[in-house]
Amino acid sequence: MTIPKIPSYPLPFKQDYPAAKVNWKIEKNRAALLIHDMQDYFVNFYGEDSELIQQVVDNIAQIKAWCVANDVPVFYTAQPAEQKDQDRALLNDMWGPGLTAYPEQAAIVKKLMPNEQDQVLTKWRYSAFYNSDLEKMLKDTQKDQLIICGVYAHIGVLQTAAEAFMNGIQPFVVGDSVADFSLKDHLFALQYVQNNLGVVEDVECVIAS
Known about the structure:
Layout: E1 31-36, H1 40-43, H2 51-69, E2 74-78, H3 85-88, H4 90-95, E3 119-122, H5 134-140, E4 145-151, H6 153-166, E5 170-179, H7 183-196, E6 199-201, H8 203-207
Parallel strand pairs: 1-2, 1-4, 2-3, 4-5, 5-6
Helix pairs in contact: 6-7
InterPro entries: Isochorismatase, Isochorismatase-like_dom, Isochorismatase-like_hydrls, Isochorismatase-like_sf
GO molecular function: isochorismatase activity
Domain Isochorismatase-like: 31-204
């Protein structure tokens, strides 16, 4: 009925999941970054001293710095602090009131706070594309690649990557810049992306693009 407390686990390496079926490469002029659900509420389930989440936040910060330096647009998703039951709909059955019960935890984590030029999308469902202008904003600016990082890998990150693929946008999930409920869930998400709809990269590969 709610998100469990999440123990730390070691981030997987590239050798831990299969090779991608496609040879897509990140191109700066085609790409945008999505920082997915990195709000205090979702991150706090890892605990204050989680080495896992500290490493993920640091890696995302590196990617964002690369984006800023290379004029790659940055998007965020954030659930609203107040959501009516009809807006949450089936999320209430699956996860309970969620962030609505802790509105003081709605902010993006401090190290990843959006800049004035960043776009913050209101998040209503697992996918960042649901009931948002993300697809239109990407296509209006001729961006057909989406670099995705954040939480949780096998839920919103994976659903967003799948919808990007179905909308003709190449998804790149950054394997060491996402976190999940467990290493098993994390690997499942990365394997699914590689096998079915996109490419998994690591932070070093992204910033070398």
